[in-house]
Amino acid sequence: MARVRFDKEKVLESATNAFWHLGYTATSMQTLVELTGLKPGSIYLAFGNKEGLFKESLDYYAQQSLDNLEATLDKYQSAEEALPHILMTFVEESCQSEYCSCFLVKSQLELSEQQTELKDHVSQRLRKVESLYFASFLKNNTENVAKAKAASIMLHIFGVRVYGYHSHSKDQLIDALHLGLPWLSWPINH
Amino acid sequence: MARVRFDKEKVLESATNAFWHLGYTATSMQTLVELTGLKPGSIYLAFGNKEGLFKESLDYYAQQSLDNLEATLDKYQSAEEALPHILMTFVEESCQSEYCSCFLVKSQLELSEQQTELKDHVSQRLRKVESLYFASFLKNNTENVAKAKAASIMLHIFGVRVYGYHSHSKDQLIDALHLGLPWLSWPINH
DNA sequence: TAACTGTTTGAATGATCATTCAAGTTAATT
DNA sequence: AATTAACTTGAATGATCATTCAAACAGTTA
């Protein structure tokens, strides 16, 4: 089937899942070949190398996350109202048995100082998320407060992403979020 | 020099550092051989295999962390007084250029569902930390409050460990901690 | 229909991986 | 001094790693 380019979206979805679940180092090209259905040559022609495919997978995941986030933020009057819902979906996710934390967070922590380029790539995407929260908080807050609130949200999200990975105790997680983020507009029925 | 057992403490320190900085998968036995100074045979006799050495490294790190934590908690009247100091050291650490997050957190996120045994090993150590905070909070709080406070602390610590790995902005981190943990006895000057 | 161009194919490559084990070494025991 | 026991040594093993590339293929163009 030469001259019939593969479905890049599908390939990226498979690759993203592999890297997300197994990690960058532990995901072999052989695994990628199996899961994407592409032959090595095709992968290398399309993405250059393993690192290239990883980067595009990161972008694929990050773009989805950002789109999702933006949509939810737009649905509510303020970030203070939207965030309880966002956080609750994160908590719900973290309770599922196949929970795999956040691809960006996992990647960030896996990459070492030696892999500066990849690490910066991930950092950039994470900062984009924070700046989205920051911009949203700016509507009802001074710049300093918005900055602190955005950072506090990031701390809590990172926390949920790590905490939920080893302990599936939903109630405890929710209590901790209420305690740490009392300035959010939590729904009244607890 | 047969019959002269190697210095296990030194070996574990080297191995811990390697695993901590590079991650479990990315640390090869060859690297371990170089850094510990042991020959492959000696490592396998003493630790069984790579996984065994990794486990002992985790324990070595976890024990040090717990000892440190316990000592600091004992130095102050309450956990509410001790924690600002503990958190500030974590923030300080996160600002250093060679910062490498927390070995336990990194390992937890690197291990996948397939490596159940190793993952549980790490989870257990992380839970021990939380229960230490919990026990300390019990002195001045009801059980429910102590539990929520301990969870909130864990969220913030995980947050610092991830946040600090990609963004070295000390002030932002401190502001976020003040915002999220107002019930701690922060020192008056700031 | 013949030549061309961009894509796929998959076996091959050499490097590196975790692990093994027979041989060597040294201290303790007899 | 001879033997035994405990440990170290490091080359070797086979598996798996990321990557390459010549050949096959199928659309497009001339």
UniProtKB/TrEMBL annotation, chains A, B:
Annotated ranges, domain HTH tetR-type: 5-65
DNA-binding region: 28-47
Domain of life: Bacteria
The keyword ATP-binding is assigned to this record: no
Record key words, sorted: DNA-binding, Transcription, Transcription regulation
Family annotation (SUPFAM superfamilies): Homeodomain-like, Tetracyclin repressor-like, C-terminal domain
Record-linked PROSITE patterns: HTH_TETR_2
Protein's UniProt keywords contain Methyltransferase: no
Protein name: TetR/AcrR family transcriptional regulator
Organism in which the protein naturally occurs: Marinomonas colpomeniae
